[in-house]
Amino acid sequence: MDLSVVVPAYNEAESLPELAGWIDRVCSGAAIDYELIIIDDGSSDNTWDVLRQLAAGNGRIRAVRFRRNYGKAAALQTGFEASAGAVVITMDADLQDSPDEIPELVRMVREEGYHIVSGWKKKRYDPFIKRTTSKLYNYTARKFSGIKLHDFNCGLKAYDGEVVRSIEVYGEMHRYIPMLAREAGFRNIGEKVVQHRARKYGVTKYGLDRFLKGYLDMLTISFITRFGKSPMHLFGTMGTLMFLTGFVLAAYLGIRKLVFVYHNLRAPLVTDSPWFYIALAVMIIGSFLFLTGFLAELVNRRSPDRNRYLIREKLNTRV
Question: Phi-psi bin for 182: left (phi > 0), alpha (psi -120 to 50), beta?
Answer without folding.
Answer: alpha
